[in-house]
Amino acid sequence: MASEEPRDLEQIVRDGLITLVFGFGYRAGILDSFIKTQQPCSAEELAKQAGMKVRYIEEWLSCLAAAGIVRVHDDDRFSLPYDEAKLRLQGHIAGVIPVLCDSIPELEKVIKTDGPRGNQFTLLDLGCGYGWNACRVGQLYPESSVIGVDMDQISIDRAMEEQKSRGVKNVQFICTVGGHLPSDWTDKFDFVVMKQVMHNAPSVDDIMKEVKRVLNPDGFAAAWDPPVSSYPNEQANNKHAQLCFPFSVFSCLPMSLSDLSGVGEGLGDGWGYQRKKEKIEEHGFRVVQCGDVDVNTVQERIVFKK
Ligand SMILES: C[S@@+](CC[C@H](N)C(=O)[O-])C[C@H]1O[C@@H](n2cnc3c(N)ncnc32)[C@H](O)[C@@H]1O
């Protein structure tokens, strides 16, 4: 087999470093400001447009000019010789590098033969119902440890039957209210999920307090509820709202009003996304965006951290 000349490793590493600087520029907004500025422009003009310190912009431009990405004109003026769509797409891709770097400390641990095995997480399915989701997660991730809780004993009995029939060993079901979880569960879970629970719950504040306590500091919580707005004028002629509200009238609202003390809040589907988000934030959680949809857009899922 003919031996191929290896690629220039030194150049590859230099290009990699420049990609990091380019990606940083995309994330910080320098690239966006550059695109919006009349080119060729000076470092001062770009710094002004970006609202950044001139010396940093000078150094960023020098970096990219050294790599041939930025073009240098007379009188120390600069331009970007690429069309906007290409710059934004490649900037977006390069911007992934710092995100990947965040995982390096964890990756250094798990790569070792005796390092942690993947998917050794703990998950709480709060309001697990018949246990389908908890059993599925347990089956998909046999190294994980999953606990499903529900306040309804009939649901827990069904969940246990489900678990037995599927032969899942790493899942446990407990009948308890989400607002009073075992005292030794503090910081226990990597994930807490609540599927179609929050808008049904009689005491959502108690649940949020307990989620805050049992979620570990690096953990994620996620809740799924019908994707409807909290404001009636945004629900008119909305097919999701039309589909969900009949169930709310007959099931979700009565359940949310069913607190033994008689002070159930009566959330139901009409509680909607915005008020759910406010409630989560009121309890000191930070809502995080997962995927492309902005966290302020009405949607089914909401993900949050301590
Ligand atoms: C619509 S069901 C969803 C069940 C399951 N998560 C699913 O997606 O199939 C809502 C469940 O939440 C439970 N639930 C509501 N409020 C609760 C609370 N405060 N504590 C525990 N379970 C609760 C109900 O008993 C019910 O089983």
Molecular structure report:
There is one protein chain. This protein has 306 residues and is an alpha/beta fold. The protein folds into two domains: 89 residues, Arc Repressor Mutant, subunit A (Orthogonal Bundle), CATH 1.10.10; 189 residues, Vaccinia Virus protein VP39 (Rossmann fold, 3-Layer(aba) Sandwich), CATH 3.40.50.150. Helices cover 45% and strands 15% of the residues. It is built from 13 helices and nine strands. A seven-stranded mixed β-sheet has the order 5-4-3-6-7-9-8, with helices on both faces. A two-stranded antiparallel sheet has the order 1-2. Helix 10 links the parallel strand 6 and strand 7. The longest helix is centred in the first third of the chain and has 20 residues. It starts with 8 loop residues before the first helix and ends with a strand. The chain binds S-adenosylmethionine. The site of S-adenosylmethionine has 20 residues, from helix 8 and strand 4.
